[in-house]
Amino acid sequence: MKKLFKVSARHSSLGDRIFDISNYTFMILLCIVMIYPMINTLAISLNDATDSIKGGIFLWPREFTLYNYEHVFGEASLVRSFFMSVSRTVVGTFVSVLCTAMVAYTISRREFVLRKFTTIAFILTMYFNGGLIPNFLLMRDLELIGSFWVYILPGIIGVFNLIVIRSFIEGLPDSLMESAKMDGAGDFTTFFKIVLPLSLPVLATVSLFVAVYQWNSWFDVFLYNGSVPNLSTLQYELMKILQNSNASMSGKTAADAFANANASANVVTPTSIRATMTIIASVPIILVYPFLQKYFVKGLTIGGVKG
């Protein structure tokens, strides 16, 4: 192996070496630029709030404390809203991806007469929207306000995700579909037994998109279920905590914050709460991502058709 490396290094030109060094340097700098904000946010969330006002916190906290997390998790409604967010993310992702994949399979079939018309109709919804008030009135008339399904049904079909899945399905070998039909399989059997298993890479990618949207969404909670505590989500509760923190600090200067710090050992600021909220909201997605990443580059159609 060492001999092979030496031979390849000996025959590589000066331009290739310069390109490799430049490429590695650029990628290292890009990783630093992408990772540093997260590490800095974590450091601020673990640092004393009043000390954070001084600035100068980069990779690690200057005065370590867990009070920011204690303050956030001290809210009684946070645990309930966390499970609501998990339920919304799991149910919303499953239903949305399944329905989107079924529609994508339908419009990918050449024998579907209204294929072009249906595709254009979906794409038009990406450019034109009824607006906030018509959407609210529609949810009211459908009796979805005050219910869990107002989080699921309005965005059950994502047009961008639909186009992505349709393009992937169109790239599958037609011989697989033809063989299934020759064996007497119907559309549902073909979809669930052949198309879905072969589409796991794109389904995993779309699932991550939908899950991040469902997990981070809070405005629809504010709009439709703001007065229903049992249907409140984690993001909405964190938003209210941040608003309360901003209201308590309204009109106060840094000197006032230091004065409050002398009077009380534990103080929170909007900056510390915002950093803590960012970490809390990001950790679940970071934990889920590695389990989906392996499907992004997996070519499950290789070897699907035997010569």
TrEMBL record:
Keywords: Cell membrane, Membrane, Transmembrane, Transmembrane helix, Transport
Residue ranges of domain ABC transmembrane type-1 in the record: 82-279
Gene Ontology annotations for the cellular component aspect, listed alphabetically: plasma membrane
One Pfam family recorded for the sequence: BPD_transp_1
Coiled-coil annotated residue ranges, if any: none
Top-level taxon: Bacteria
Membrane topology, from the record: Multi-pass membrane protein
Example GO BP: transmembrane transport
Signal peptide: none
Subcellular location per the Swiss-Prot or TrEMBL entry: Cell membrane
Main location: membrane
Residue stretches spanning the membrane: 21-39, 82-105, 117-136, 148-169, 190-215, 273-292
Keyword set includes Iron: no
InterPro entries given in the database record: MetI-like, MetI-like_sf
Keyword NAD: no
Matching Gene3D superfamilies: MetI-like
PROSITE patterns per UniProt: ABC_TM1
UniProt-listed CDD domains: TM_PBP2 (cd06261)
Record family assignment: Belongs to the binding-protein-dependent transport system permease family.
Protein name: Putative aldouronate transport system permease protein
Species of the source: Litchfieldia salsa
